[in-house]
Amino acid sequence: MDAIILAGGAATRLGGADKPALRLTDGGPALLERAVEACRGAGVRRIVVVGPPRDGLALPPEAALTREQPPGGGPVAALKAGLDCGVTEDRVAVLAADLPFITAEVVSALADALTEAVDGGTCPDAQGVLAVDAEGREQYLTAVYRADALRAALAGLPDGGAGASLRRLLRSVRTVCLGSDGRAVFDCDTWEDVEAARAMADPGADRG
Fold this sequence. Notes:
It is a single chain. The protein has a single domain (2-201), classed as Spore Coat Polysaccharide Biosynthesis Protein SpsA, Chain A. The chain starts with a strand and ends in a 7-residue tail after the last helix. Strands 3-2-1-4-6-5-7 form a seven-stranded mixed sheet, with helices on both faces. Helix 1 crosses helix 3 (104-119). Strand 5 and strand 6 (138-146) form a beta hairpin. The chain is α/β, with parallel strands linked by helices. The protein contains six helices and seven strands, in the order βαββαβαββααβα. Helix content is 29%, strand content 18%.
């Protein structure tokens, strides 16, 4: 399995802060570093980070960096850039870079669920597995897909998918859902989310 981590975006609800570089605790890993480590722990062969260069973040040698075209073109364009950057395995994990509690166990569970759906016969034509939160909302960026299914879906979109939504892209991809406890798919879209994640990561901290 390979992996693509989407680490661009304008983070408008965070006032333009560099969300993937945020840390939950002083001296702890940045959100992007957490996603990378989850992939490494799940045995991912190649990790592609789609986003701008960031000084001061520790990325392993197997992590490649690329940008979507045009820069700021949205998650579908970013996904295409990731696939075009040396992804060769049949399956690819696709993660956002703002998942503070993503783990190798979650990534592995998604991959195993795809194998079970196909080989176990519950959904033999499955092309991806999405995590869902406690309310049943599908998390397109906490998922494992068949790489060829994503490429076929992208080929059907104009302009390399620039400006398209993930929902539109995935309409032609046959997916199944895997429930989660909510923590694994918790993402940081606002400063309130960031503070909540910091409280969960370090519940004894005095936040004044």
